[in-house]
Amino acid sequence: MEAIESTAGPSFCLMKMAQLLANFLSQNRMAAIMEEQCRPQKKPGFPLLQQTLLNKVVGLPDHLGNRLQQDNLTLFFPQNYFRLLGEEVVRALQVIVDALRGGLDCSVSFVSQVLGKICIQGRQKEILDVLVPQLTALTQGSCLWQRVCWRLMEQIPDRAMEAVLTGLVVAAPGPEVLSRLLGNLVLKSKKAQFVMTRKLLFLQYQHTTSTLQSLLGYLAMDSQRRPLLIQALKELLETWGSSSAVRHAPLAQQHYLSAAILVCLAHLGEPELRDSQDELLGSMMAGVKCHLDSSLPTVRRLGMIVAEVLSSRIHREGPPLRFQYEDDKLSRELLALATPCTAGGSTLEAGGSSPAPAATEILEKTVDGEVESANSSVPQVRPQDSDSDLDSDDEFIPYDMSGDKELRSSKAPLYVRDCIEVLTSSEDMERWEAALRALEGLVCKSPEATQEVSVELAKVLLHLEERTCVSGFEGLRQRALVAVTVMDPARVAEYLTSQFYALNYSLRQRMDILDVLTLAAQELSRPGHLKRHAQQVSSGSGGLCLPAQAACQHDHTAGSGWRAVVEERIRSKTRRFSKGFPRRELANGPNEFNSVAGYFFFPLIQHFDRPLVTFDLLGDDQLVLGRLTHTLGALMYLAVNTTVAVSMGKALLEFVWALRFHVDIYVRRGLLSAVSSILLSVPAERLLGDLSEELLEARSWLADVAEKDVDQDCREQAVRALLLLERLKDRLLPISP
């Protein structure tokens, strides 16, 4: 190595020495070097020689790459060299084990330093992918090999402990393997305990679920290590229940903490949880409140799942908590993690896989409707006296009831005023439901009649409550309210925006107002929306269909059946030499949202900073503030090419600038979406002419968000907004003087 480093430039001598070194490595001589360093030495210069050898052994790929450059040999590539070094470490350890069996003294300190230095340089995967499988097999039935591995890990320097343990936990196939390789290292080394119970659980949240199960399963496998598992659960719950962590931690980290809590609960027994019941319950209640107050649906669902599992495990005296949340892949995976483990401390085998995928697969099959038992391969024997074969109806063809309609005794109202009367004063629930279902079609069919009572009808629908169990009640109510707003946008929008900041409204009603305004603006901005409404009403989509009309349509359908058959035969027998592509006529018409955009936008943005007795956007009602920011951004985007777009953009930029440092992730996402809507809707010339100072301030803020925000979606939206700014600048650069 010294001769290669002292050679100036490429030469025959340099390549000859490199080939000699490659031949040296291929003959397993590196194992002999490490074996020699593991024997007791009494020479005065031995520590200096050992440190020099350590630097040369670990830094060989870098030195050879710098000297040989393009002529470097493949053996000296890092991905090849460190795998070879892993094989040599196993051979050296085999010699040490044989020497110990013969009664000789040996030390694994040099091998530990080599392993630590390699992992510090970021080459854990290359060497541990070779070491872990072989050490797993060697420690399977040998206590001596286990003692050698424990000593190997104990001799690793503290500065390299984190890198080695992180790579080892990731590479180990399960907690049993990890326990055989590490022993009680977490009890003997403070650095190892800090890494295993703090860093890998709280800071390094990029690891997979199987890695997390291996780590916590290792702590649970030995009675001396189980107190560390209980302490880890307490600290995890304390962090999980912190309002600051819920607001500022990335979503991936919160998911990782929730999964770690569920895995801890799966490994702990009821007596262990009972000893810390009061402390765990206190942390759980604080955490549930913080999670349910979050404006992100995923965070709320994490809080619900963890609270359900935790309450069922630590509070068996009373009924456990129950929540309603979406049953999707995320929920099933988290619930599978909480499945209690066997008495052995873990359900993982050496070389096996995590139990979570199996449990998840079972749950997925159950959800998909497949009924499979654990012993489904065993045929089920029917009783001899069963009459199922005698009374079987399998040979009968089921009657097609797909076209049947429910018979109702009450007729639907035929006029909008009648619907208002029924919805406000009728005690007949069938008539009330029929009026609600027919209202949207009547509103679209009679614009003049709707405009006469539009504000009154909007008030009725806004305060309408579900009197009986109506399928799709919220959708029917929302569509009717949107239809009323589209028919009379100015007056209804003015009423809805005034009620958004009024007293005695629930948060649900305020968010309904925002949803209705967004959907109505979207409908008004579409070209030809009035024609489309007329076509829907004429086709019967509004829910109004008289019996005579239905009978007439049925006769017409039956009479035109033979015509369709004849036309199909003619079409199949006709030869055409060329046939052009059918042209779809694009819908056109004025943008109806142009004249009423101000009624939708400006009243919403005026009073956001004025708290009410029961409504404070800048206080606890962050969810509504997030919905408001998204609604304002959507209205801004729908106001493209309108005359009021510049004024809306300037007001929205001031709104964004006032809330740019908000702590809630959902609010920041809405603000970034609003900035992108401004850049897309306001003409570029007016942006740089009237809003140049605001854009300069927004650009610095966007760059800061793209670099430092904890939420990935916020960073991505900030990058997209910066790209839009650059595109606008490039487009107007030739025009500028």
TrEMBL record:
This is Telomere length regulation protein TEL2 homolog. It comes from Octodon degus. The keyword Nuclease does not apply. Residues 371-393 are annotated as: Disordered. GO terms for molecular function: Hsp90 protein binding; telomeric DNA binding. InterPro entries: ARM-type_fold (IPR016024), TEL2_C_sf (IPR038528), TEL2_Regulation (IPR051970), TELO2_ARM (IPR057348), Telomere_length_regulation_dom (IPR019337). Keywords: Cytoplasm, Membrane, Nucleus. The lineage of its organism: Eukaryota, Metazoa, Chordata, Craniata, Vertebrata. One of its GO terms (cellular component) is nucleus.
